[in-house]
Amino acid sequence: MAKTTRTPPPISQETREHLLTLIRSTTEPVTAAQVAKLLTGPHKLSEARVAPILDEFVAQARLKPIPPKTAKGKPRFWDRDSVELGRLLITATLEKKGAVSQSELRKGAKSVSDADFLAAFQSLIESQKLFEHPPLPKKKSSAFGIQPPSPELYLRDLGIQLSQTVAQLVAAKVPAEQLRRALVQLVEATGVSFNANVSRAPAAPPEPCVTDLVALIRRIEPGADNGALVASRDLRRAANLEKTQFDRAVLELASQGRLMLHRHDFASGLSEIERNELVTDGAGTYYVGMALRRGVTG
Amino acid sequence: MNPFRDTIVSSPWAACVDVPEIQSDVFQECLQGIHQVRTSGRSASLLIHGAAGAGKTHLLSRLRTHLTLQAPSATDRDECLFVWVRLQASPRMIWRHVRRTLVEDWFRPVRGQRSQFERILFHRLADIRVATGDLEPWYEYMLDTDPTALDQLLDDVAESLFLDRNTTIAFKHIAFGRHRRDLRAWLGGDSLPEEALARLSLSQDEGTDEDREHEARRVVLMLCKLAGDGLPIVLSLDQVEALQTSVGDRDGLFAFGQLVSTLHDETSNVFVIPCVQSSFATELKDKSRGADYDRMTSLGARSLATLTRSQAEKLIAARLSLAGPGFMPPPTTDALWPLDPTDFPRLAAVNELTPRRLLATCADRFEVYVKQASSSAVIDVPPDDQPATDAEVIESSADSFLDDEWKSRVEQALSASRPERTEEIVRHGLPQLARLLSPHWKPVRDEQLPDIPLVFEEPSGVRTGVSICTQANMNSVTALLKRLKTQFTPDRLGRLIVLRDGRVPLSKTAKVASQSLEQLVQQGAVIAEHSAEVYAALDALRELISESKSGDLSRDGQTVLPDTVEKWLCQHLPVGLRDFVDSILGKSSSADDSLPLESLATLLSERPIVPLAEAAVALNSTEATVVALIQRHPDRARLLMGPPAVVFRVDGDSLS
After folding, report:
1. Which CATH number fits domain A13-78: 1.10.10.10, 2.60.120.260, 2.40.50.100, 3.30.720.120?
2. Which of A262, B211, B481, B565 could potentially form a cystine with B278 if both were Cys, beta carbons 3.0 to 4.6 Å apart?
């Protein structure tokens, strides 16, 4: 009796799409064998039947071929490319080990090529998901972490040295005021500012308010009802309106007598960015700020 | 006379026409602030913002007038002291500037009243005197009949206040009316000759620049303490913008913040009123330390309101009352006359009408009316609907205004010129002058050179230091010169200029000072002596720039902008000031060897007439440098004042 060969049923379009969805949901590339294991129920397929479908998806650019993990490993497939895989591996290493050197990161991503690793590395730096930590004293190379470096580690030695110097100056009867001023100037000369905005920044930005700028003025400046000035810049940022819309709204309130405008006499001396933060009537007049006319309600 | 023409209140000490309804709310807040300081025994500060021409100085003038005594000093009335400081000063001399101004204001005679120092005296004596009755007659009586007992009372005052020896003696000199001129100079921080100090029985240890600043701070705090809690001091700080010698300069605002914080925290009777232009408000907030800004606004921040129609009517009426009996207004019931019916709606369209803008328009309308009234000719009213922009109008007519302002300010500065003020003038004015003429020289700070307050650095890194040696006290001069010898080392400075003032020569007996000066010259230092005229011109320069920055320079009601002033200065600066800069920064500064005549000649061969601004760009130089070059070579090129200023070629062809 002749042996009959059963022709496997054709793979349905639904199974193909299911397979694709499965691969898209994985957190790393998968081999054909891994895909076959993931398929269950009516979509169950053998590795041999999955492989040609994966090749087909690659040919259609719906999946990307990813090199094997090891020299003896099997090809892998993913909906993302090797650079994305590199980013994933770098991030995984950082989450596991904390800030490490670039060579450590490379070790953790050895399954991607050098070029893809570098591309992934650069893109993480540029997107500020990876931060270089300058070498600490007595270290030769930089490290890389998912957060900017902690300043305390870098300033510790300086702090010890500064404390000693300050103690010497205090002992030498340097007036406290003079010392404080010199220290503040020293720090500010580095570009770190002690300015008012830093210390007085609101805990949370005011919510955008399209219609009620007067209420927003009161929220920004508690003394607004007593005539305190509110800078156009601050109100604009808080209002979060489109520029011309904001300017029109302010001018309208002013013409209604609810606001008093303060003209900037020297707007031409400002940079383009600074000037754009002022309110303008579009005819060359700029207003640096405004105050509520006393008696304004609502 | 046009009663609307005068739109600037130059000082709160000057009388001015007042309409109490205008800015009445902020005025009341000031009075409340004084009351709070008096009752709480704690100093406080109220920051005032205002657009240019909104009336900041006018408000201070009203406050000063309100606080001026209308009757003999008495402790049963709430009295106050007043100080107005225009911050036209180097940030590193801010305490010395406040000290000098405070002392001058407290010695200032006001309408036949006692000086403020004398009021302090009366209040202090009233605290401890044993007699009853009117204070001033009692004081006069004590002075005439029992000076010993009066002296003893003053000792008691000093003891109760823990006054130091110098302050106690100075206080007694005030009480007995002794050595008034020298005392005023000593209290103001002027260097005095040893003989004068001996007469006063006072000492003066000038020390380094830091020491002197620290001493000024100490004296200001001591004088505040002397005034006492029963006599609050209104300390108005005007023209804060003038502390910045360049755009983005942080030193000025840092020093200002520290000044306010110290006054706020270390005195108990000072009501500080910093006044700034609205356009400076953001910068002040951004660049001040948070803690300092908190103190500046411990009683809040207030902005000066724009004019309502009713206020405008009252202001116009008040000004018209000054027109004189010969003036006949037209028969009209319009309270806004001389404005046209369309003027007010236009000026106040978006609620930004300041008194200065109102008065400027009134002045124009008034002038037209007077001309029409005095002749039968019909005069066209100048179209005023919408000038191109304020800046353009000002640019086109500012030259002659600035020319007049310059002459009058130089004249005033010269008449008020004293060698004691030379250091303040140079330290505030020279960086601004250098920025105009030699922008490539950058002012830098070197804490290792405490007696060389001005250091300029070339792009090559070469540094020139300037020390000002104008003290009248020869011991101080000697000590300074000795310190300079050690500070002037090649690793820190390429050149050292020691500025002297010809009005304060070294005395014949100051042999060590002379020797030190000679040794400094041997070390390579340059001793530069300039005339009072040069310092007066520098004083006028810094004043003009400061006032334009603060919105206090106005022509016909329009604010004259800082860049207009600086452009004008570049083009009209007297040779004496250019030479002054040359003597300090070298001939290459304003003369700028980097710009050879040939470059200009080449440019003019291609374009015989070229706007100055374009010439500067084409030559990769500054307008000031191009102007300086033209001034040195009038046979090759000339300048035609604009605007816009143009450079043109002078040669046989063009002349023909």
Report:
1. 1.10.10.10
2. A262
